[in-house]
Amino acid sequence: MDIANQLQRQFMDYSTSLHREGFVDDQFTQLQKLQDENSPDFVVEVASLFFEDCEKLINNMARALEQQQGVDFKQVDASVHQLKGSSSSIGAMRVKNVCIAFRSFCEAQNREGCLRCLQQVTHEYSLLKNKLQTLFRLEKQILAAGGSIPIVE
Amino acid sequence: MAPSENLAPAGRANTGNGGGAPNGVEKQQRCQFNEVVLRNRLTALLVDGNRFCRTIEQGLLRAYGVETLAVDNGRAAVELIASGVKFNLIVIDMLLPILNGLEATRQIRAMGVRCKMLGVTACSYEREREAFLAAGVDVFIEKPLSPEILVPILRELDGQ
Asked: Which of A1-5, A79-83, B128-132 has the lowest average pLDDT?
């Protein structure tokens, strides 16, 4: 089996595991299908936009939750809401699921619950970022070896 | 224009109008969106305050050959419609800066605009759904806007 084939096999296995472990859902697959020779870096570019967006929103949440004078839960919720929207748009299922729980704690004005969710969302975002960076590295290696990137349904 | 605004793949209208004969790779890629071949040139207005979501949703609409304009707040959407620009489809989020999606929708409907409006939002509570429908959207869609949801709507607009 040549190198490109081996790398493609690795890529498919890795992609499958990302789906199986709930890191990404079908929405991510749909975005991969939007990538073509006119926009060969579409997924990498939207992923880095997503990571920027995540970091900004997580920082906003952390700042709002740190306020000693009283937490503005509406402000926290606004950021969580945005993150829910963008994570679902990229197919980041685990991040989205934490956001759903997070919103309930915002609604209940439960600071401890919110802080736990903030920790979880930060953790899930880091995990996802590492996983996607690995996936994109594999893609580069496949292309460098002269292969094409398979779409994993 | 911010670099990210150019990230949406160039519209690949599967209308059979213009463009050279596709090579093998392009043909394979197009087949994945071949489920919708639009006979008519559809236009859409996308209203979302989040740059990332705009990029994704615009990419999706353009992949089906829908000519899409995006704005990032409710007031800009209302002003655009008030100026007489017509769209086949309006995709609007609920939480928007300057003028929120509920009020923007009401104002657009109050102008007599009857085009299809999709409320695409991260909101998921029943009360939010009811409010958005009451404001005038035809369909309430919890994000993400996926091909599964979009395709039947585009077919309907295309008269298929």
From this structure: A1-5
A86 vs chain B: nearest CA distance in angstroms? 6
Question: What CATH code is carried by the domain that includes residue B122?
Answer: 3.40.50.2300
Q: Does A149 touch chain B (CB under 8 A)?
A: no
Worst-scoring range by mean pLDDT, A43-52, A136-145, B19-28? B19-28
CB–CB of A45 and B7 under 8 A?
yes
- Asked if residue B19 has pLDDT above 60, the reply is no
Give pTM, 2 decimals: 0.84
How far apart (Å, rounded) are the C-alpha atoms in residues A121 and B50? Answer: 19
Give the helix/strand (H/E) hosting B45.
strand B43-47
Helix locations, chain B, DSSP H: 24-31, 51-63, 74-82, 101-110, 126-135, 147-157
* Count of the separate structural domains present in chain B: 1
**Which ipTM did the prediction report?**
0.85
Is A82 within 8 Å of B123 when comparing Cβ atoms? no
| Structural domain includes residue B32 | no
Domains, chain A, ordered by start: 3-145 (1.20.120.160)
- B60, part of any domain: yes
- Rounded Cα gap, residues B94 and B121, in angstroms: 6
To the nearest whole Å, the CA of B29 is away from the closest chain A CA by: 7
